[in-house]
Amino acid sequence: MVNIQPYGTPEYFALIILFLLPIIIGLFNGRRFVNYETLFSLVFLVLTFGGSKWQQGVALIGYVIFEVITVGVYARYRAKQNNTAPFVWAVIIAIIPLVIVKVTPAIEGGKQSLIGFLGISYLTFKSVQMIMEMRDGSIKEFHPLAFIRFILFFPTISSGPIDRYRRFHKDYVQIPDKDRYLKMVDKAVFYIFQGFLYKFVLGYLFGKLLLPIVAHQAMLQRSAFFHTGLSLPLLGYMYTYSMYLFFDFAGYSLFAVAISYLMGIETPMNFNKPFASHNIKDFWNRWHMTLSFWFRDFIFMRFTFFIMKHRWIKNRIRVSQLAYLVNFLVMGFWHGVTWFYIVYGLFHAAAMIINDIWLRFKKKHKGIPHNRFTEGFAIFLTFNVICFSFLIFSGFLNTLWFK
Amino acid sequence: MNLKKGLWKILGPVIAAFVLVLAVLFFPQGFGNVSSKTEQRAAVSLSNNIFKGNKIKSQAIRHGYVPFIGSSELARMDPMHPSSLAMKYHRGYKPFLLGKPGTQSIVHFFAMQGMMSELRNRKLVFVVSPQWFTKQGQMPEAFDYYYSPLETIDWVIHANNTVANRYAAKRLLTMPSASSSAVMKSAVTNIAAGKPITKSQRFYLGMEEKLLGNEDGLFSRFVSGHRLDMIKNDQKQLPDKYNKSKLYQISSRLAAKDTDNNRFNIKNSFYNLRLRGRTVKNLKGAEASFNYTKSPEYSDLELMLNQFNRYHINVLFVIPPVNQKWAKYTGLSQKMYEKTDRKIVYQLHQQGFYHIADLTNDGGKKYFMEDTIHLGWNGWLKVDDSVDPFLTKKQAPYHYHIDNRFFSKKWQMSTKY
To answer: Residue B274 pLDDT more than 90?
Structure first.
């Protein structure tokens, strides 16, 4: 039995375009072939989670059933009542599988959990989002099939972008007219080729060709600078890894968005020139956007409202600082329970807090110059702060210091 | 927007791109010869692209370059390095360096496939390090790193059913690279079982070979001249006329200046980078249990000998020593090292390979080694004593007689020789 990883090889693209043709022709004629699309999604899910990865496939099926029941039960409850405790429980139950999957390697010495599968995080984000929006009353009805279609939407299943249910559902039901769809196809073709450039040319250049070289050089300098390993090659590793991370992930995201477009779904973009950010807050509005917006809406904002409602902390500045800390710590833990992911979270929380302090300071002191040069400096500084955070994120320091 | 026109606008460039890419990749093209400047750069570049590719290696050998096959020692480029001496004194040969840290016999066996026919009845130099002959032999990670799909496909397509090929196939199947493509894996499995490869395997691998060959033709010419510049710069320190005693003087002077921060006569920069501090303390006595006398490497080496025989290549083997001071410190047994050397030499002599520069007893000579296990300065000059006459003088006729017992597990583990 074959197993194909999403967007990995030219064969995958040939296969997916071939199978998509009927859907594309259908959409041009204003029709969505629901049955064919379901079958098609199934085939690609089996290709991704079948063969040598069949355990993941089983885990995926179990997970989907579990989430449908969790969200479904909460939906039925919410139709009648709206108390806090059941809501909190629904969220906790919905994230339990993800928590198990993330914690297992940390306590079992790197062993992966049996209930894990590629993309469990992204499915969980979507499930939690459903519960939260039901709580708010912005999602009123629950259709198990529509929910399954949403969380299993295969172009984005492995690593996002994270869509929102209402947006997705609207696109699914409302077929774009011919002109609009043509424009979407046009964009899709462009994104696919941009993705090729990003992932297979630049990502390959930085990740496969350059990264091993700088990694090797940096390892040779382990004893440099009083045995801290701080060296020029390490700096080289930092920049090379940052470029690799961006081009690889942005390339992948472009593929996911492009295939969504071909299926008539306008999945939101994930990146918007992140390295041109003027400050760290700006960065999080441009980098892995669907994730950071999810965190903003469902962790940062919720947490802020919660604190303000209960008046635990009066000072608004303190509230937002605490909220940043919680927000990025959760993000750190979500990446994985290792010291470097957690430090990565703390680092970004600190950067956001410092950034806020600076912006307030700047507002108060009107004399601080603002021109092309200060903007250039801001971009340069932000870029380096980001790259340093990616060096932490890469886990290379762990290898350099402790292995 | 008109639908048809709109679609053409979107898909036209895509179709054109595909047609162009397929044409470039699958139609055999020569992409011409590379310039002699590129050959010169490639010969000392130690670049992976050159090593894994075929075009430039083969062309350079056709144009008279001599392969110097080995591993990490080739990168020890001081002014006495073989490439430097050959260039400075306009010797009748030009070394083409093949090998980097971790390239052992089995890596070379596959990587050389495409250029073998160019080497028929020619000469080459092969530096065989006793350090290769560990219990595991070739490290799979290193094999992966140096694995050349292009050269390996060349072997698969032409592999007859012989003991050597069956052995090579079995070895290849123990490496992760063999499983990188399903077709490759099943074809190699066939060879290992003594069966011919199927028509469809041949067709598929043939297509892949064309594609990889075109890639090689397009990209391997972009090779860094960094090491060539280094060598050219180094030569300024050599006397204009070849003079052995003067060379030893200069060599010892350079070495003395460059090894004065440690008691092992190890190059300062190497010592600072790799050993200083905790590392060197941890290594005291750490190699006492090292044993190179039992290893699959002996049979991997036999694969190379088998190739030398098939193409009737005259080979000078160089067996380097270890830095004696360092060996004493780490507890590496000189007795074991000599036994290893005897076993290698036995395997060579038994089959008619008599050109051996056996330096295993020279590890204690001053400035012979650049660091722990790598030749440098005076060591290179000693190598030159064998290399120069071997390559520039006419050699007596030679005849090999390959013995397949050296492919056996029994020989790998044997202590009788």
So the answer is: no
- How much is the mean pLDDT over chain A? 93
* Residues A87-126 pLDDT 10s: 999 999 999 999 999 999 988 888 888 999 989 999 999 9
Q: Whose structure tokens read 């040779």?
A: A220
Q: What is the DSSP letter of A49?
A: H
The ipTM is 0.70
Rounded mean pLDDT of B183-197? 95
Give domain limits for chain B. 1-30, 34-413
B7 to A221: CB separation less than 8 angstroms, yes or no: no
Among B1, B14, B277, beta carbon nearest to A182:
B1
Residues in contact with B391: Cβ distance below 8 Å, sequence separation at least 6, in sequence order: B66, B91, B92, B93, B123, B125, B316
Residues of B in contact with A189 (CB under 8 A): 10-11, 14
Give the distance from CA A386 to its chain's centroid: 17
Most B CBs within 10 Å, among A3, A20, A28, A223, to test the B interface: A223
> How many CB atoms are closer than 10 A to CB B199?
8
Collect the ranges in chain A with pLDDT lower than 50. none
Pairing of strands B314-319, B356-358: parallel
- Scan for tokens 């088998």, then name that residue: B306
DSSP secondary structure, A164-223, as one string: -HHHHHHHHHSPPPHHHHHHHHHHHHHHHHHHIIIIIIIIHIIIIIIHHHHHHHHHHTTT
Distance, C-alpha A71 to centroid of its chain: 21
Q: What is the pTM of this model?
A: 0.75
CA dist., res. B382 & res. B244, Å (int)? 10
B45 Cβ contact partners less than 8 Å away, ≥ 6 residues apart: B97, B223, B224, B225, B226, B227, B228
Q: A220, B3: Cβ pair inside 8 Å?
A: no
Residues of A marked active site are found at: 335
Peptide bond into A161 cis (omega under 30): yes
CA distances from B81 to A41, A373, B227, B322 (A): 61, 51, 12, 17
Residue among A116, A7, A109, A8 at smallest CA distance from A53: A116
Is A189 in contact with B10 (Cβ distance < 8 A)?
yes
Please tell me which residue of chain B has the smallest CA distance to A223.
Answer: B273
Which of the four pLDDT bands, split at 50, 70 and 90, describes residue B259? Answer: very high
End-to-end CA distance of chain A: 37
pLDDT digits (tens, 9 = 90+) for A352-375: 999 999 999 999 998 889 999 999
DSSP string, B300-351: HHHHHHHHHHHTT-EEEEEE----HHHHHHHT--HHHHHHHHHHHHHHHHHT
Strand order in the sheet with B65-69: B94-98, B65-69, B123-127, B314-319, B356-358
In the stretch 94-123 of chain A, residues with CB closer than 8 A to chain B read none
CA distance B17 to chain A (A): 10
- For the CA atoms of A384, A388, A390, A396, the dihedral, rounded to the nearest 10 degrees, stands at 140
How far is A272 from A257, CA to CA, in rounded Å? 13
- List chain A residues with CB under 8 Å of B10: 182, 185-186, 189
Q: Which of B107, B98, B86 is nearest to B49 (CA)?
A: B98
Q: Which residues contact B110 (CB under 8 A, 6 or more apart)?
A: B147, B148, B151, B152, B155, B168, B172
What pLDDT is recorded for position B181?
A: 86
| Terminal-to-terminal C-alpha distance of chain B | 84
Binary contact (A220, B14; C-beta < 8 A): no
Q: Is the CB of residue B305 less than 8 Å from the CB of residue B348? A: yes
